[in-house]
Amino acid sequence: MTFEADSETSTDLEWSVTRNPAPRSAKERAEILGNPGFGKFFTDHMVGLTWSISGGWQQPRVQPYGPISLEPSAAVLHYGQEIFEGMKAYRHEDGSIWTFRPEANAGRMQRSARRLALPELPLEYFVDSLRQLIAVDRDWVPSAPETSLYLRPYMFATESFLGVRPAEKVAYYVIGSPAGAYFHGGVAPVSIWLSTNFARAGKGGTGAAKTGGNYASSLVAQAEATENGCAQVMFLDSAEGKYLEELGGMNIVLVYHDGTVVTPKSDSILEGITRDSVLDLARDRGHKVEVRQVTIDEWREGAASGDIVEVFACGTAAVITPIAQLKAAEFTIGKADAPAGELTMALRKELTDIQYGRAEDRHGWLTRLDA
Ligand SMILES: *Cc1c(COP(=O)(O)O)cnc(C)c1O
C-alpha cells in the first residue's frame, strides 16, 4: 500500500534548532522503547513558541527537553489558565511516520483556547510544531505493534501577575513520550464506576475544552472508582444526574441490538476525535449513528432487556476500550467477565489498521510528519 505525503504545510516560522548536547544513547533509547509504558519517558527535545499580546507568536524553537523556568507568580500556577492536546505519531511498515487528523486537534486546541481566554495557535503552526519535533526525535517513534510516540502539545499563561484577567504572556510547547501497547496480551474489557457524588462539568463550564482543570476536578472521582475496583470513572450531567456524559478522559459509545450506534450529546463533554472517527467507520459499515441524550436508566434497562449489546469507551491513548460492567453505589450493569463486543473489536481493528498504514486511508485522515 502506498500513501502520498500531504503537501508541505508551509509557515512563515523560522525555527531555531538547539540540539541536545547529551541525548540518550541508541542503547538507552532501545531499552526505553522496549518497554515504554505510558507517559513516563520523554524524547531528547521539545518544541516551543511564546506569545505576547504585543508581539504575537514568536521564538519558534527546537530545544533540549528539560525544565521550564517560570516566575513563582506565573498566572498558570494560580488560576489554571492551561489547555492541551493529545495525539500520536505512528511508524508504518516502511519506516515513515504519520499522525492522525492533526487539523482536528489543531481546531480543537483553538476552541479550547477561546474558552480559556488563551491565544489561538494558527493551524499551520500547530502541524509545523509536530513536524519539528519529529525531525529531531524521529528515532523515538517505536516500531513494535501498537506502539507509538504520544505527542502532547500544550499552552499556558506565563505572565507574572496575580490580578485576575487573561494573561498577556503565554507559552506553547510540544513534548513527545513513547507509548507501549495499551493492552498487553489482548484487549481486556474493563469495569467502570458511576460517579454520583461528583460531576465533571456543568452547563456553561469548561467541559468541552481540553484543559487541566477538568482533570484536576476528576481525580477524587477517579480515586473513588479505583477504591471500588474499577478502571475508570463515568460522569453524568451535573444538573439532573441523569444523562450520560463521558469518562474522565474518554468518550462513551453504546451499540444497540438493531445495530444502531449511540453516543451522548451534551455541551459539556469533550468531543473526541477518536469518537468522531469511530462513528464515521460505523456509518461506512451501514450502521445508523445517533448523537443524542442517553439516560443512565436507558442503559440500565437496555442492558437488562438485551436491547443494548455493547458499550465501549474511546480516546487517543487506549483507542477503544470495551466496557464489561458499570458499577454504581446502588446497582450494577453487566458482568465483570463480559467479553468484548464484536463491533467494538471490529471498529478497533479498523481504526488502528488505518493509523498504522495497514488499511487504506479512505477518509484522508493521515498526515505524514517525517517528510
Ligand atoms: C482528550 C479527551 C477525550 C478523547 O479525545 P480524543 O480526541 O479521542 O483523544 C475524551 N474526553 C476527555 C475529557 C478528553 O480530555
Give the total of beta strands.
18
What is the fold-level CATH name, i.e. the topology of the largest domain?
Answer: D-amino Acid Aminotransferase, Chain A, domain 1
* The CATH H-level homologous superfamily of the largest domain: Aminotransferase class 4, branched-chain amino acid transferase, N-terminal domain
**CATH top-level class of the largest domain:** Alpha Beta
Largest sheet: 9 strands, mixed
What is the overall number of helices?
8
Structure in words:
Residues 1-8 have low confidence and may be disordered. The chain has helices at residues 26-34, 76-79, 102-115, 123-137, 212-227, 273-284, 296-305, 342-355, and strands at residues 16-17, 45-52, 56-64, 82-84, 87-91, 97-100, 148-157, 169-179, 190-194, 232-236, 244-247, 251-256, 261-264, 289-292, 308-315, 319-327, 332-334, 366-368. It has two domains: 7-179, D-amino Acid Aminotransferase, Chain A, domain 1 (2-Layer Sandwich); 190-355, D-amino Acid Aminotransferase, Chain A, domain 2 (Alpha-Beta Barrel). By secondary structure, the protein is of the alpha+beta class. Helix 3 crosses helix 4 and helix 6 (273-284) packs across helix 8 (342-355). It is globular, with a radius of gyration of 21 Å. The strands form two sheets. Strands 1, 2, 3, 4, 5, 6, 7, 8 and 18 form a nine-stranded mixed beta sheet that branches. Strands 9, 10, 11, 12, 13, 14, 15, 16 and 17 form a nine-stranded mixed beta sheet that branches. 42% of the residues are buried. The protein is built from eight helices and 18 strands. Bound molecules: pyridoxal-5'-phosphate (PLP). Residues 86, 210, 214, 246, 249-251, 270, 272-275, 315-316 line the site of pyridoxal-5'-phosphate.
